[in-house]
Amino acid sequence: MKDNDIQVSQHFFALRLNKDDVVKVLMGLNNASVVTDPKNPQLVNNGGPADVQKLVATLGVKSKSVTYSTSQLSTGVELISKPSKLQVPPWQMVSAILGGVPLRTATWWANPEIPSTTASSTIACWDSSLKKPGAVEIATTGHWSGKEFGLAGGLGTNYNHAKLGVSTSTTEHYSIFGDMNQQGTLSGTNCGSSQNGRGGTFYVVSNPQLSSSITSLISGESAPPEK
């Protein structure tokens, strides 16, 4: 099948959830307008407690929310949910929510690309609910066992469809697993361009060993900041 979702590497993220966590994740997915059909048994087997079933039944509908949400799960993982009506660059949003921590990201980076940004970059497509983001670096190459590989978007044998990020701060050790690419715009008349106008979620893990490993994996060349 000639589809970039199939041909190009994705990432997997698994997490143990208790009942309270399931409720928080479902609320985050609802806020992000997750694409699904809870009435289709091939996609959803809705069971369990009544409150969980009720939340599952609300999925698959476009959210009217304009506000991001955050939840702390029982494992210490932080869940960030971006609604589609919050039309801002997604990974700059994550940086801002995490206190302006600088990030390095590896996503499907293709037209319309959001360039790397510095802490002083101007982002006109922004929202007053968000504080100022730190620098967000776009990784275009990474390394594994001494070999370099590509991390930009595109079709072929050397591209990336995962959505990973790490903090580059010396004091924070975040690994971030998301479902949004660095595509959209920093400014202009169409702030809803591409991923800016899409909902999505991010799972933030604070663990020095994991952060160090992913930092090494996506170390390499970076996209230049916007001139």
In short:
The protein is about 20% helix and about 20% strand.
Could you explain the architecture of this structure?
With 227 residues, this protein is α+β, with helices and mostly antiparallel strands. It contains five helices and nine strands. A seven-stranded mixed β-sheet has the order 1-2-9-8-7-3-4, sandwiched between helices. A two-stranded antiparallel sheet has the order 5-6.
Biggest sheet: strands, sense, closure?
A: 7 strands, mixed
By DSSP, the count of extended strands is 9
What is the terminal separation in angstroms? 38 Å
Count of alpha and pi helical runs: 5
Main structural class:
alpha+beta
Mean pLDDT: 93
Rg (C-alpha, Å): 17 Å
Reading the helices and strands in chain order gives HHHEEHEEEEEEEH
Helix content: 10-25%
Break the fold down into its secondary structure elements and pairings.
Blueprint: H1 4-7, H2 19-31, H3 50-57, E1 69-72, E2 78-82, H4 90-97, E3 103-106, E4 136-138, E5 141-144, E6 147-150, E7 164-167, E8 174-178, E9 200-206, H5 208-217
Parallel strand pairs: 3-4
Antiparallel strand pairs: 1-2, 2-9, 3-7, 5-6, 7-8, 8-9
Helix pairs in contact: 2-3
Keywords:
single chain; 227 residues; 7-stranded mixed sheet; two-stranded antiparallel ribbon; 5 helices; 9 strands; 19% helix
